[in-house]
């Protein structure tokens, strides 16, 4: 028999049993819900209204007695208002009680009438007592009415307690019915669940035994193939899907063997090509660096034949700019990654070169540079910005041998964002200078590189010396 038929048959049997289980549980839940609804809609409201009637009548009696004994008109008026409110509540409760009795408990009509009659008698006695109290000098009549009120109260409470007890019995009976229903549903659900469990185990054992041998062969063959033995063949004659699987598995193994051999040949060719391209790229970076060094040397030789200090300074600045770019290419061909450079080493080497060129020993350098790689497309503009700002600080921030400190910070601030900060505690940039409108080539180069190439945000802080802060997103 096909495995699919075995599985379908097993699932069908289990599904039928589970359907019985769900059907039984659903019907049970509906039955329990209906029984609880009856309790909530019938018994409990009757019980609740009986208690409201009882306590409203007791309140009327209590307030009436307080009016009789009180000589304070304010207290008497307050109690009269409370009696009026209690009567209103009593009438509303009687209306609800009567509707419930007529709808669900017609056999309790007599009890309802007795309660209503007694409560009305009590309200009448209450009104008479209050009237006698207001007339004055009616002590004897008041005592007689009070005695009659006490008797009526006892009779009323007795009738109400009987009604409440009857409702308690009704509530207990309905609760027992619900509990019996729950027990019956639980027992039937457990029985069906147990039968389903036994059937599922039986079907599982049957299918497991029928598949064990063939699956073991497949497992052993898979283990052999995973160890590299691609010549393994699976021999299964089960006349089912497992046999079809073994045939497909053998074909897959043969195709895999052929594909692996082809991939090995292709990988060797790709590896050889990559090595050749890597050597070529390193050679290109090396030659670019050498060409820039030649240009730098030519600028140096040219400056030796010029007496104008301004032109000498311009050539020196250009030489340092070229050196900052050449240093990137030098770091690239020296590193394993030809697309990114380590900013920590790069900034340290460039800063050292600039201090050797301009510093007279009166300025200290502080660095806080994280060891993080940066793509060459961002490293070159960063290098030029660092070169310009350090050069400006060394040349203009500390005149007449003034001592000071230049700080460089570069770090990653999350989500592929970077922050470059260069500051000094020198004399600072004049407050009226707009760095975007200045004729200074260096500052113009800084703003252009920061905003147009790095697409970052440039912030200038002039509070203590000068601080340039650039935040940009890398790749």
Oligomeric form: single chain
Count of separate DSSP helical elements? 9
**Separation of the first and last Cα atoms:** 60 Å
Q: Number of DSSP strands?
A: 7
How do you describe this structure in short?
It contains nine helices and seven strands. It has helices spanning 3-69, 73-104, 109-135, 139-226, 241-304, 309-334, 343-358, 376-397, 441-453; strands at residues 340-342, 363-369, 373-375, 404-414, 417-424, 457-461, 466-473.
Structure description:
The protein is an alpha+beta fold and 475 residues long. The protein has two domains: 3-203, Up-down Bundle (Four Helix Bundle (Hemerythrin (Met), subunit A)), CATH 1.20.120.1730; 340-475, Histidine kinase-like ATPase, C-terminal domain (Heat Shock Protein 90), CATH 3.30.565. The protein has helices spanning 3-69, 73-104, 109-135, 139-226, 241-304, 309-334, 343-358, 376-397, 441-453, and strands at residues 340-342, 363-369, 373-375, 404-414, 417-424, 457-461, 466-473. It has a five-stranded mixed sheet, covered by helices on one side. The protein has a two-stranded antiparallel sheet with strand order 1-3. A hairpin with a 2-residue loop joins strand 4 (404-414) and strand 5. The radius of gyration is 50 Å and the shape is flat.
Supply database-style keywords:
single chain; 475 residues; alpha+beta; Four Helix Bundle (Hemerythrin (Met), subunit A); Heat Shock Protein 90; five-stranded mixed beta sheet; two-stranded antiparallel ribbon; 9 helices; 7 strands; 75% helix
